[in-house]
Write a structure and sequence with these properties.
The complex is a heterotetramer. By secondary structure, chain C is an alpha/beta fold. Chain C contains 14 helices and 14 strands. In chain D, helix 4 crosses helix 6, helix 4 packs parallel to helix 7 and helix 6 packs across helix 7. Chain D is globular, with a radius of gyration of 19 Å. Chain D starts with a helix and ends in a 17-residue tail after the last helix. In chain D, 54% of the residues are buried. The chains are: A mainly alpha, B mainly alpha, C alpha/beta, D alpha/beta.
Chain lengths: 442, 310, 389, 312
């Protein structure tokens, strides 16, 4: 019974916090003033009311649950022999599921095609810059994080490489340093792809032997180095001034002349095609021997190695593949609009990781949904809250999400199994191991 | 004018900043040692601690902008350290409760903790910005007698001396705590093998909380020291956080003495590097050194066991 | 923990509900029967530089409230804010947000040069006027953005004048030019250095990304023993740098640019460290100019006691210039007419007289020199006059 | 200590598979007599392996030979260095001293020390683990596929484009994997998640996965640990069937019944040294072996090994 007052306490604290978050803005001369003002205000009644309501729901929850569970999400499966057998049966029914997947995919694709037509141009712009580009980045990082189980915190560096490669090859004015010839950005796609993949190999070859967290910090360092060099090398990249004047994409082929421009919509559809293409390609990869090798490495690296999987080479492959997608996205971004080194900050790298985990690592659809939801949330909050406070809500949503759905929005089947198993104490959910001392498992 | 002429001065500068990195790095290393988890929100613990200490010290300052000097200033530093530590500890406790514990209960994959930490960090940074304003907040120099002595020609001010001394005292104190007390024994036991530790009657949940709080106390006190010279602001945590994390890895994450060594070394490398090259390349140099060292010694300078540290 | 998913759903719902309650609190409806004209603001309202954005936003709000309080004004102004985080990534979306809102007839912003370069193509395409209070990159008016105006002089103007002042008045023979590696800082330091070089002044250049730790940089500066340190960057960093230099006993003069002309500089550096610092600005300073006392007073009133800071005055002037145009246009001001009329605006603002070259550049900017004296920033005068005397 | 030595060697009664000749593990380690058994068709030969961890010596000059097609069992008390030996053979540990030569085919010797584990597996040495290490969330079929596919050559591009060669390889892989599952008696479990299989089946799945890599030497680390008598019988039969195909099997096992019934020769390890080797019958009589087993106190060889306690 002592849990109830504690739950009430927590609810009230939450209510107070919400009051402070939504309350007035303070300053450093009277540091506690703003918090006090938001609590000593009539509004507090509303928040306390909400807190009590929350408490009631929590306390009465178990009883209400039966009713609500049927309507809302099905309860999380417990790992039992029965579940596992069920999982197995589901696997047997793979063929039937494939059909359903195609149907769902087609439906989602239709939504993706129609969606931009019913929203404002600003939203379209955001669908390109924020959602589309980040979905592409997340798909690439997903290969590294989700498939191979490696943590890359400097992923945006490859994006930068792609963008600067575009400026180098496709414009003679964008950067002080440029190619002696000018290429249509379309031709830069393969170049950037290869350059970024090479960069991935160069970075990965010596570092992939490092354990998970060391790899994380080395990649983080690499990302920062690229970012700082881009910002400092005035004579080469143009430094903080950025690269202005990279031409838009255009096609002049067999009578077809089309040029992309400022309008975001054509870019959206181009991105959509690319994203879907990448999803399909990585889907095939995932179901091939390569995908199975990655899964093996993720689940038990030692066993994978003993089974003949060239773990280092497979990780390097993942790294290079992920990097190349990032470089690809960089070309698209650079040809779409002006950029400067700010676009390649450490925070951007973190954000891509957040999109991948939030969406559900290892799941192609998941990471795209992650980009849609997170960036959509950011866009939604633009008008709803003070811009300066936007990231308070954003941060809160991420924490709440991770608490209640650590596997992400749309986890992949394989990953879900891994996580269920890891929760039951079998195997590891990623090659980084579990953060949980095994003893605290319930 | 040459580098060698400034060598000692740069060393003093580097050691002062490095000692602060070391203090923050301990928080990363302790939590990593116990949970094998990078506590990415630790930088915000540091930020909140520094605000706490700074506001406490400012509240006690006379309104006319003067500083008491001498013993009065020492007392102010003590108050600031205490308040900073308290805020840092509280922040770390809350962080563990809200952003980590629920995940631990669910045995979430490790990356989920990372994202939860990033979310918590975004929340804390922007809430602090909202509550305390987005301007840097200054604490008047508590000591105004400038240089107290010269070390090989390098000027050492009272402020520098105080910061370095307090930081080193905290480092030594923590090292003793981990090496020589029952609590430290518990921490080391959990770090080495949580399963066995629980069989030996160690309360793992408690050790985890304590580890977070100890890291928070240090980061909070370190935050006040940082704010004494470098001002405080809502976004102040990120950079020293990344640096301290780098320092922890450099020394061998999970290793208490490694974090100290890594912090001091990183401070020195930055100081020398910033002098020898354009200062904006100093992070490039710092990260370059990190990568180079990890290539040669993949588990950091001193290896990585918290348990082995003592 | 069996009931977790349910709790999760509730908690998520709660968060959404709470954030929903928080919204829509801003924006007062107009009570009088006056016509409402909507203007937009695109600036940096999130991220590390948001204080600069707030400075500008508060300036605009001050102008808006003054216009709306003025009974003789035939219209009321309504402000729509759009945050670009100061980054080019978010620029196009932020701009589009304002473009989409058909009521918006003119925009104050964008603030940073990078975001401007990313956003301006969209404004140009939409024919929506944008008046930047703070983007100083010299190239901006040469990139073919026909909708771009700025009420602040480009870096070249300030850099040249500052260099003249350093060598003629401060008699600097050796200058340490430090920039913050931002678009603004590198632009200003490049202009300054070009002029100093032409005058044969010995130069040391260094760049340092904004940080809090200037200890070793101070050592480096002192080791170079310059007569003058010119910092191209913002006040928050200059304050820390000044503190570090003071502690290490730097004896040269510290000079900085418009990014540091903010009372917060003195507050954050402490009076002792800030004392004597020179600041150059192609602008009048509201806080020290007695003519702007009314502005300062109304600024404080509108913005809960905040003082005008860097770019507040410019943003105010930009808004007032817009209001001036609206007044002239009378009823039915739309994007096209506003854009056409804005080039010929002539208004005595608090930072300068606002008139424009055809390129969108503000005309004949005088660069003023300020100095921190007794803990407050006071004006020394116009560089041209100071050099002559 | 309760286990009497006699009972240890009590025999299981399963049919013994006779294949190679007399075991040729070399006692006395240091001097593998030159020319001794020179004509023998060896599959693997370890010479003078030394492995130390800090101050602990795990292998102290172990030499061992195995003939092609032979089932060689390595026995010894806990901590005698059996698994360390395995790890040296498979590249998981790198011995400080000594060599391991492996003949994938009689005319092509390869040095194993210094190679990475996957390279050794590619040469044809497959292993299982003492504490089963399957890929728990993959299905049984996928587990075996991983082993088979590591020999396939098609790259990411072929996979993405779905080239015929890739599809063919994929189909072949599945077919081969099903065959192997059938061999170990798990064909009906092909699409079940590995972690959901009962313990004994997991053991067999691990063997199938190892066989998938196409080895000429199969290393089994305590395959019978933790299995019940029925499972154990099945297992013995399975190992017998595998050996009957001509596969060389190196076996670590505590269960003496299993060892005595299966092995063609036995090597006994104690304190990181080979103290005896020979046919099961010879070893059984060796005084040094009896001494070793009787002298280890409470941790003695858990006779039947059926409890699987010493697994941990």
């Amino acid at each position: 019974m002592s849990a109830r007052p504690r739950t009430l306490g927590a609810s009230v604290l939450l209510g107070l916090l919400a009051a402070v978050v939504t309350g007035p803005t303070g300053d450093s001369d009277e540091p506690l003033r703003a918090a006090w003002d938001s609590i000593a205000d009539v509004r507090i009644v509303l928040f306390l009311g909400l807190a009590v309501a929350l408490w009631l729901v929590l306390v009465l929850g178990p009883r209400l649950r039966g009713l609500v569970a049927a309507v809302t999400a099905p309860p999380r499966r417990r790992l039992t022999a029965a579940t596992l057998t069920m999982t197995a049966r589901r696997s047997v029914a793979a063929a039937g599921r494939r059909g359903r997947t195609v149907a769902v995919g087609g439906g989602l694709l239709a939504v993706a095609v129609v969606a931009p037509l019913v929203v404002s141009t600003a939203a379209q712009q955001s669908m390109v810059n924020d959602i589309g580009i980040y979905a592409l980045l997340a798909l690439g990082l997903n290969v590294v994080v989700g498939y191979a189980g490696l943590l890359d915190l400097g992923y945006i560096a490859f994006f930068a490489i792609g963008a600067y490669a575009t400026a180098y090859f496709s414009s003679s004015t964008a950067m002080p340093w440029h190619a002696p010839f000018v290429l249509n950005p379309f031709f830069v796609f393969p170049i950037a792809l290869i350059l970024a993949a090479l960069a991935g190999v160069v970075l990965g070859a010596p570092t992939l032997r490092l354990r998970g967290d060391y790899l994380a910090i080395v990649t983080l360092g690499f990302g920062e180095i690229i970012h700082l060099v881009a910002n400092n090398a005035d004579g080469i990249t143009g430094g903080a001034r950025g690269a202005f004047g990279v031409p838009h994409l255009s096609v002049h082929l067999a009578g077809v002349d089309y040029a992309w421009g400022i309008d975001p919509l054509p870019y959206y559809y181009l991105l959509l095609v690319i994203v879907v293409g990448v999803m399909v390609a990585f889907g095939r990869l995932e179901r091939s021997r390569i995908g199975r090798s990655w899964a093996a490495i993720r689940e038990d690296e030692i066993a994978a190695e003993a089974t003949g999987v060239a773990t280092l080479r497979m990780k390097l492959l993942a790294f290079a593949l992920g990097a190349s997608v990032s470089g690809f996205a960089g070309v698209l971004f650079a040809s779409k609009q002006f950029f400067n080194p700010q676009s390649f900050s450490l925070q951007a790298s973190f954000f891509v990781v957040a999109v991948v985990i939030f969406g559900g690592m290892g799941s192609r659809l998941g990471v795209v949904v992650g980009a849609v939801v997170l960036q959509g949330l950011a866009f939604y909050l633009r008008d709803k809250v003070q811009p300066a406070d936007r990231y308070i809500y954003f941060g809160a949503v991420i924490v709440v999400m991770m608490i209640f759905r650590p596997q992400g929005l749309v986890p992949s089947r394989r990953r879900r199994r891994e996580i269920e198993l890891s929760e039951a104490g079998v195997g590891a959910a990623d090659s980084l191991g579990s953060a949980t001392p095994t003893v605290v498992r319930p | 004018m040459g580098f060698l002429d400034q060598f000692w001065q740069l060393s003093v500068d580097g050691l002062m900043v490095g000692s602060l990195y070391a203090v923050i790095a301990l928080g990363y290393t302790l939590v990593y040692g116990v949970l094998q988890l990078i506590n990415f929100a630790h930088s915000e613990v540091f930020m909140l601690g520094s605000f706490g200490g700074l506001f406490a010290a400012r509240a006690l300052l006379p309104g006319d902008g003067s500083v008491p000097g001498g013993a009065g200033s020492i007392a102010l530093v003590a108050v600031g350290l205490g308040a900073g530590a308290a805020c840092g500890g509280l922040a770390a406790f809350t962080l563990e409760r809200v952003a980590y514990r629920p995940l631990r209960r669910r045995a979430a994959p490790r990356l989920a903790y990372l994202i939860s930490a990033i979310g918590a960090s975004l929340f804390a940074v922007n809430l602090a910005g909202k509550e305390f304003g987005r301007q840097n907040v200054d604490l008047p120099d508590l000591f105004h007698n400038g240089t107290v002595f010269r070390l090989f020609g390098a000027a050492v001010s009272t402020q520098t001396l105080v910061i370095f001394a307090v930081a080193v005292a905290m480092l030594v104190g923590l090292d003793r705590l981990v090496a020589g007390t029952r609590l430290g024994q518990g921490i080391r036991a959990v770090a080495q093998d949580a399963d066995t530790a629980v069989l030996m009657g160690v309360n793992v949940e408690r050790i985890i909380i304590v580890t977070f709080v100890v890291g928070g106390l240090l980061a909070g006190a370190g935050g006040f020291l940082y704010a004494m010279t470098f001002n405080a602001s809502y976004s102040m945590g990120f950079v020293p956080g990344v640096k301290a994390f780098t320092a922890a890895v450099l020394g061998g994450i999970g290793n208490v003495r490694g974090a100290m060594l890594g912090g001091l070394l990183l401070g020195l490398v930055e100081s020398y590097g910033g002098y020898l090259f354009q200062a904006s390349y100093k992070d490039v140099i710092a990260f370059g050194v990190l990568v180079a060292i990890l290539m040669i010694r993949p588990s950091g300078l001193l290896g990585e066991r918290l348990g082995r540290a003592a | 923990m069996r009931r977790r998913p349910f709790v999760g759903a509730v908690a998520l719902a709660a968060v959404v509900a709470l954030s929903a309650t928080a919204c829509g609190s801003s924006g007062g409806g107009s009570s009088s029967g006056k016509e409402t004209i909507t203007i937009g603001f695109q600036g940096v309202l999130s991220g590390d530089n948001q204080q600069l954005g707030l400075n500008a936003l508060y300036g605009i709000r001050t102008a808006v409230s003054e216009v709306n309080a003025d009974a003789s004004s035939p219209f009321e102004l309504k402000l729509v804010e759009s945050d670009d985080g100061g980054s080019p990534d978010q620029g196009p979306t932020a701009a589009q947000k304002l473009i989409d809102n058909s009521k918006v007839v003119a925009v104050v912003g964008p603030m940073f040069s990078g975001a401007t370069k990313a956003s301006e193509p969209a404004y140009t395409q939409a024919g929506l006027l944008s008046v930047s209070p703070s983007a100083t990159n010299p190239s901006l008016t040469k990139l073919g953005f026909r909708t771009f105006y700025r009420v602040i002089a480009p870096d070249t103007v300030q850099g040249k004048a500052a260099a003249d002042y350093l060598s003629d008045v401060l008699k600097a023979r050796k200058v340490f030019s430090l920039d913050d590696k931002s678009d603004y800082g590198t632009g200003l330091s490049a202009a300054l250095e070009a002029e100093l070089k032409a005058r044969g002044v010995a130069l040391t250049h260094d760049g340092i990304n904004p940080t809090k730790d200037y200890t070793s940089e101070a050592t480096k500066i002192i080791a170079a023993a310059p007569d003058v340190l010119y910092y191209s960057g913002y006040y928050a960093e200059l304050a820390l740098l000044s503190k570090a230099l003071k502690e290490k006993g730097f004896t040269g003069k510290i000079v900085s640019g418009d990014g540091s002309l903010d009372p917060q500089y003195v507050a954050q550096a402490g009076k002792a460290a800030a004392e004597g610092t020179y600041l150059t600005c192609p602008c009048g300073d509201a806080n020290s100019d007695p003519n702007a006392a009314a502005f300062v007073a109304s600024f404080k009133k509108v913005n809960n006691g905040a003082k005008p800071g860097t770019y507040s005055g410019e943003a105010y002037d930009a808004t007032m210039a817009l209001a001036d145009v609206f007044k002239k246009l009378g009823k039915g001001a739309d994007r096209e007419s506003v854009l056409k009329a804005f080039g010929s605006v002539n208004l005595q603002g608090i930072t300068k007289t606002v008139t424009f070259e055809p390129s969108g550049e503000v005309k004949g900017s005088n660069v003023f020199i300020y100095q921190v004296k007794n803990g407050s920033i006071s004006v020394l005068g116009n560089t041209a006059n100071l050099i002559r005397s | 200590m309760g286990a009497g030595f006699g009972r240890v060697f009590g025999g299981l009664g399963a049919s013994s598979t006779s294949g190679g000749g007399v075991g040729s593990a070399v006692p006395g380690a240091r001097r593998p007599g030159p020319g001794e058994d020179a004509a023998a068709d060896l599959v693997v030969e370890a010479r003078d392996l030394c492995l130390r961890f800090g101050g602990v010596t795990s292998l102290d000059g172990v030499s061992l030979r195995q003939r092609r097609g032979e089932i060689l069992a390595v026995i010894g008390p806990n901590g005698a260095g059996k698994t360390s030996l395995f790890n040296c053979l498979t590249g998981a540990y790198r011995p400080q001293h000594g060599t391991v030569t492996f003949w994938p085919t009689p005319d092509r010797p390869a040095q194993l020390v210094g190679r990475r584990p996957h390279a050794i597996t590619r040469l044809g040495v497959a292993r299982t683990f003492q504490n089963i290490r399957l890929f728990p969330a993959l299905t049984a079929l996928e587990n075996v596929q991983v082993g088979i596919e590591m020999r396939q050559r098609y790259g990411p591009l072929s996979a993405v484009l779905g080239l015929p060669s890739a599809r063919r390889a994929e189909r072949d892989g599945v077919r081969r994997a099903l065959e192997l599952l059938d061999l170990v008696g798990l064909a009906h479990r092909a699409h079940e998640v590995a972690a959901s299989l009962p313990y004994g089946e997991q053991r067999r799945l691990e063997i199938a996965r190892a066989l998938g890599t196409g080895p000429s030497l199969l290393l089994l680390d305590e395959p019978a640990a933790g299995t019940n008598p029925a499972e154990k019988r099945d297992l013995a039969g399975l190992i017998g069937r595998i050996a009957a195909t001509g596969m060389s099997v190196l076996l670590i096992e505590h269960d003496m019944g299993l060892v005595m019934s299966l092995a063609t020769s036995v090597a006994v390890l104690n304190f990181g040294r080979v103290i005896a080797c020979g046919t099961p019958a010879e070893v059984q009589r060796d005084p040094a072996v009896i001494e070793a087993y009787l002298g280890v106190g409470d941790d003695g060889p858990d006779a039947g090994g059926a409890t699987g306690k010493e697994l941990r």
